[in-house]
Amino acid sequence: MSASAPVIMLEDRRSPLARTRTVSLYPDRIDLSDKGVLARRIDLAAVTEVRLTVEPAPGAGTGALVVCRVRAGSSEIAFGSRRLKPGGGWSDEGYAFRKTIIALHTALRPRAGEIAFREGPSLRTRLILCAAGLAMVIAALGFAGYMLLARNAGLLAVMGAPFALIGGAIAWMYRPRADQAYDPDALIQRFSGKTADRA
Fold first, then answer.
1. Which of 47, 57, 112, 136 is the most exposed place for a label (fewest CB within 10 A)?
2. What is the spatial distance between Cα 92 and Cα 192, in angstroms, rounded to a whole number?
3. Higher pLDDT among residues 180 and 69, named by residue
4. pLDDT tens digit sequence for 139-157
5. Angle at the Cα of 154 (from 148 to 159), degrees rounded to 5?
6. Which H, E and C letters describe 75-139, residue by residue?
């Protein structure tokens, strides 16, 4: 394995239950370290999928962050455009995130035809969230029906309507559908502001 210095490094923490970890991108690999100890490594020659998703960032001004997930078989390394600080609040990692995204996609360009570049939640995630939304709808309608028919309490029955609407919106937003592919060259151009010439 190459002992060269990393091209770019950034810190990642997206959950209050997780520790801050360091993601290091090298010319031939991407490493995830926990307090200087290697936790996971993926060779760029083995990458099979890169997925970009927008995920919630509670408390952040925009309410969301972009997460990049790099997969090789069952192994995954993920990093985000924001980092949850130990004391609370989010640190903007946009500059390092953008540089890492550009360097990663540039390094993977020679193998672009062998890698799935996808955006949005995976089918598994969509199924889980869609099912959760449908369960919320069923529970809300069940509550409303019980209050209306068994208790004859129309006002309380109406209280189930907002939950049914929210559940329906979640189920519709995350309804199962095919993965959306993106062009890595177009992404490099968008993130760098320069034309990405094909190798």
1. 112
2. 18
3. 69
4. 999 999 988 888 888 888 8
5. 95
6. EEEEEECEEECCCCCEEECHHHHHHHHHHHHHHHHHHHHHCEEEECCCHHHHHHHHHHHHHHHHH
How does pLDDT run across 89-117, given as a tens digit for each residue?
888 899 999 999 999 999 999 999 999 99
Strand order in the sheet with 180-181: 75-80, 64-72, 49-56, 116-119, 180-181
Q: Report, as an integer, the average pLDDT of 145-172.
A: 87
User: In whole angstroms, how far apart are CA 46 and each of 70, 71, 172, 183?
Assistant: 10, 9, 35, 19
191 residue type, one letter: F
Chain position carrying tokens 């889980």: 128
Give the C-alpha separation, 123 to 185, whole Å: 24
Collapsed DSSP state (helix, strand, coil) of residue 71: strand
Of 110, 62, 100, 109, which Cα lies nearest the Cα of 79?
100
Residue with tokens 């309804």: 175
- Whose tokens are 């990405």? That residue is 196
This prediction has a pTM of 0.75
pLDDT above 70: residue 50: yes
